[in-house]
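Retro notes
What went well: the complex prediction finally ran end to end.
Inputs used:
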Amino acid sequence: MTEATPDTPGPEANMQGRPKRRSQAAYIWRRFRKNRLAVIGLGIIVTLVLVAVFADFIADYQTKVIKMNIPIRHQHPSLEHVFGTDEFGRDMFARVAHGTRISLFVGVISVSIALFFGGTLGAIAGYYGGRIDTYIMRFLDVLLAIPVILLAITIVASLGTSIINLMIAVGVANIPGFARVVRASVLGVKGNEYIEAARAIGSPDYKIILEHVLPNCFAPIMVYATLKVATAIMATAGLSFIGLGVKPPTPEWGSMLAAGRGFIRDHLHEVFFPGLAIMLSVLSLNMIGDGLRDALDPRLK
Amino acid sequence: MPRAGMVRRPFMRRLSGGNMLRRYLFRRLLMLLPVLLGVTFLVFTIISLTPGDVAAIMLGQGATEESVAKLRDEMGLNDPIVVQYGRYLGRLVQGDMGMSYATKKPVIGEILSRFPNTLRLAILSIIISVLLSIPIGIVSAVRQYSLFDNAGMVFALIGISMPSFWLGLMLIIMFALKLGWFPSGGASEWKSIILPALTLGVASTASITRTMRSSMLEVIRQDYIRTAKAKGVGKAMVIIKHALRNALIPTLTVIGLEFGELLGGAILTETVFSWPGIGRLMVESIQRKDTPMVLGCIIVFSVAFSVVNLSIDILYAFIDPRIKTTYQKKGASK
């Protein structure tokens, strides 16, 4: 992030040999910073990441998150338990904090799976075109004919419920979307002269794709990936909510909501805080995604 | 208009009456078939990968090894997956989706009795979304950066970020438990559909509003809008007659996509509100390991989703004259 400071002087950077990238990052950051919502989103997500990283310092996993303490069950928020306690007397704040870790992790990993496989398929389809393109896209059309959440449910239902399977399911369900986005941007880049030049000097295809095509597709893929982490977090929570994701006592936001559902009449806090956490993380990623899109594409707005 | 392509294809001509647009529709309909085959095959394969022996599950704990093997044989579970799929498909086209493991009744009957509920819910939601989002989107675009626009866009952002199952629970607490205006679940009275439909509609309202606003913004800057204004057409008239009609085209795609999303979202919303639709049926069946029912539900969902997407494509061809002309040019030059 340090190289993205807006104060980076353009001409000096020029002297250091890598002028273009540096000033462009600074330029994007400058525009991103002007978008108030995007900056708020960035603030929220940085906080959530810090909570996820330091969750063990906030509350000990075994004694606070997992261990039951029946005498203090269903306590409403107080100074001692800011988010109250759940049906087993566990501190809701500790559980929500540790839940951040799971949600962000599952979100990022599943999107990485989708980005890797979808990106590979999309890049091949877009770069080679012709019959390969047709075959890949026809296959993906079939996958696209199934709503993401439904495809994820199908996969989890057949693989069985666990965190790993959940990540695979959400990841695989997102492959077609990534393939489409990557393919579209590869098609846009492919026609450029520097690609032709690379081919003329005899670079192998994989090298052209990795070194020349993909770096120039970075912007739309980055935006899409950010927005997809948000939907992946939502899907994860949704699957856990209907009992197809992370199982209790693991502190996952969706399964915490499902557990608190039986007590909403008198113990609102048991569903309110996990849901709020889901919403904040999804919201912040959406804000960042929107901000990135506007910052990367000056033609919009 | 020269129609060289038509001469070489008398069969297509007879089927489509020689009309380019109708030929396009026919082709699009034909493309639905491979997609449906692919979807059913894929889903069938994934579900068949489920660990655990179906025959053993059906017979229960006390079954002997021989009886399990016999049932496996009878059910054709030892055949290659493609053969099993072929058999399933053969029955499927006759409207037979097998028997539910849990209720021992035909899957198709249960699905047919539940599907209208899901459809009712999704249609009401999309109607609410469209009625809310189009006016909001227009006003936001026309008064860009006004207080209304800023507030609307923040709400839209919150709307797409709101987990539907959480929103549903909050609405139940507020309007069912505290105020008692609506029932908290089930489908026993007409009021039952209101809360689930609102819950389901929030995300689509938000994203349709955003699309409507941005496509309206784009259209307003076009030359023909300036021309219309210069001609002295009134502001309201320019918006309604010139801008709206063009801005609606991209919005329509999003409405179609959102309707598909609604079908998927119904799975969660129906679970929250105990709405007797196909989404809840599917979740319950997964928990009961009722494979034929799960398979049936997923297939019905995917088919509905594909049909919605196709309808939007077709509607598109009717609404957007540019698509019609490009297709005609392409068809003629072939």
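What we learned: Residues 170 and 254 of chain A are 15 Å apart (CA to CA).
What to try next: split runs per interface for comparison.
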